[in-house]
Specification:
heterodimer; A: mainly beta; 3-stranded antiparallel β-sheet; 1 helix; 8 strands; 39% strand; globular; B: alpha/beta; two-stranded antiparallel ribbon; 13 helices
Chain lengths: 127, 387
Amino acid sequence: MRSKPRDDGYDDLLDAAEAGEAYYLACENGHGSLPPRRSCPHCGSPELSEEPLPESGTVETYTTTQIAAPSFSAKTPYMTAVADFGPVRVTGIVRADPEEISVGMRVGLAVGRNTMTGNRMLTFHPR
Amino acid sequence: MTTVRIAGADLTRFGSTPERTGRDLFAEAALGAREAAGISREEFDELTYGNFMGELAERQGHQGPIMAEAAGLDCPATRYEEACASAGVAVRAAVSAIRSGRADVVLAGGMERMTNQETEDTTEFLAIAADELYEVRAGMTFPGAYALMQRAYVQEFGGEREDFAHVAVKNHDHALPNEYAQYRSAITVEDHLDAPMISDPVGLYDSCPITDGAAALVLCSDEYAEEHAIDAPVAITGTGQGGDKMALQDRTHLNRTPATDRAAAEAYADAGITPDDVAAVEVHDCFTVAEVLALESLGFYEPGEAVSAARDGETTKEGSLPVNLSGGLKAKGHPVGATGASQIVEMNRLLTGTHPNSEYVDGGVGVTHNAGGTVASAVVHVLEVVA
């Protein structure tokens, strides 16, 4: 069986995050974004460099999903958050107790796998 | 520049009709609009048609020609896809075609068939309007996305779940007399607060339903209407479209919708109006917080101030600015690829006095607002009675 092709840029970031070396793309005007990008989504600059992502971020908003799509149906309830990592925001699954999560919570980044689909995704862990 | 008039308009009853095909739904709306306009098939220059999930729901791509056939037309037909704003951009394309002089008569509309699969599959299909890599893989559904926005809104500006409940209660109340609405049942604030959570803090009664339906408009140039003595008292006098970053994480704010700001500014300037001129609004309330965000971006409220508008009675049918007199997406229903056109059909009814809620419209200017995704796309139209 043919293995699932890589998603250039996205899978590179996940590989790096698994090795504890997550990065973001910085443009010459100081904007940040996550790969894959060939130009900055904020100013259009094609000059992008890989910079180390800060080790921790802050939860800006989150939700606990009870009713999911089929690709997450066996995972409910689960928490999705958007966290501020300084130059970029990141969306991820939160690996914490529902009582534990709050806006302003400090989180670190890791990589998890959705066992229903085999897809990897970014995860947040309390720090 | 030529004025674009609404010569005919129709929609199907919105609801759950899983056995009806998309072409059957669109044919009903299109033939109804054509009959209302009284314009023969040879006169139609184009069909502009909105649809979002047809490949997934019916395994049917290339829907433009299919829908032209369904509508009894023989003309170029193009499908527009902009998630839940698909029909909004289809109408905008029709307006542009007529204003450019390329077309005199255009059929514009949209259709979505959504209840012919399991709810969780529909949830999966809808999710592709978000960023697959960075949002969908992190478990984001559409209720989840709007929950993220609602929590960010309340975190910065305040607001209670009861405030959002009043938005839903109002829109259900407005739908009561609307024969096209999916839900013609009143709900209470308590019903809302007691309903199960879908994606905290978005509960069942914060959410629009899953809906089948279609809507269609026959648009024509002022000159064509005059030459053929067509009775078309309402014109689309302004159109605007705005865009934003696809993923929430790349936006400047998680609790504002600048795509709507941009669409509104363009549409108001195009029509030469200000928010003060508007007598009624149909906004894209796929979730209750979406109505709040829309009213702020449309310039009726400052950021953080629209959350209490329904609770305070300002946006109810007897308020100073009635919002979603059709029942909105919340109660009228949300067949995603048809919604933007259906809002204009309803506003046309409201302005011509043929809607059961027309008595609450005090003036001749209406605005419709149709959003795609988490408002990475927005389309705003201004309708005016021009006699």
